[in-house]
Write a structure and sequence with these properties.
By secondary structure, the protein is α+β, with helices and mostly antiparallel strands. 31% of the residues lie in helices and 30% in strands. The chain has an 8-stranded antiparallel β-sheet with strand order 1-2-3-4-8-7-6-5, with helices on both faces. Helix 2 packs antiparallel against helix 3. It is globular, with a radius of gyration of 15 Å.
Length: 198
């Protein structure tokens, strides 16, 4: 089964690049640096703080995130209300979106999508659910368990990684939804990853 969840896709890249004009230039350092940064930001903000919007924004601001104008934010977030910020990393400029669902989205238009998706898949406590082309974009969906950064409790979520089916086209959009929200959209995994003993 394939899910058409949050098909923000590469329209995001266009919005992002228009907004980024005039911003500090990205310091591209290769696929590995950007891939690591995307996954670190996604794990450290989206997965760790999903459902804790203000805490997530506070963490993002502590690493230099800057809010973007609402016009650009709304184009990025689509039909959902929310807030969006940019984060200048060592390898690139990233966009973080937080919606009322709650959902958390990281967009990295300059990233090597294949490298990012491989790095994400290799992480702990995630099981692939499905993959395939949806609306012209390659989508991978995972069941993920992650400790909440505030309470330390394990929480379940569904993660979607969207890249171009053309491997030479850069960019990746990663989205996290709480399991309850995802289930209401018909996204229920057959199994969840085993909880780590950490």
């Amino acid at each position: 089964m394939r899910y058409g969840l949050m098909s923000l896709g590469f329209a995001v890249a266009a919005v992002f690049l228009v907004f980024a004009q005039g911003q500090q230039p990205a310091r591209a350092q290769g696929a590995d640096v950007v891939s690591q940064e995307v996954n670190s930001l996604f794990d450290g903000l989206c997965l760790a703080y999903l459902g804790r919007g203000q805490d997530m924004l506070d963490q993002a601001q502590s690493i230099g995130a800057k809010q973007i104008p609402q016009f650009f934010a709304q184009q990025f977030l689509g039909k959902h209300a929310g807030v969006a910020v940019t984060i200048q990393g060592q390898g690139s400029l990233y966009m973080l979106g937080l919606t009322e669902q709650p959902a958390c989205v990281i967009a990295a238009p300059e990233a090597n999508g294949v490298a990012v998706s491989k790095a994400f898949a290799a992480g702990a406590q995630r099981l692939p659910m499905t993959h395939g082309v949806v609306d012209g974009q390659y989508q991978q969906v995972y069941a993920v368990i992650r400790k909440d950064a505030v309470t330390g409790q394990q929480k379940r979520m569904i993660v979607t990684v969207v890249i171009s089916p053309n491997q030479s086209t850069p960019g990746v959009v990663m989205t996290a939804l709480p399991a309850v929200t995802a289930a209401a959209l018909g996204m229920k995994p057959d199994a969840w990853p085993e909880v780590s003993a950490e």
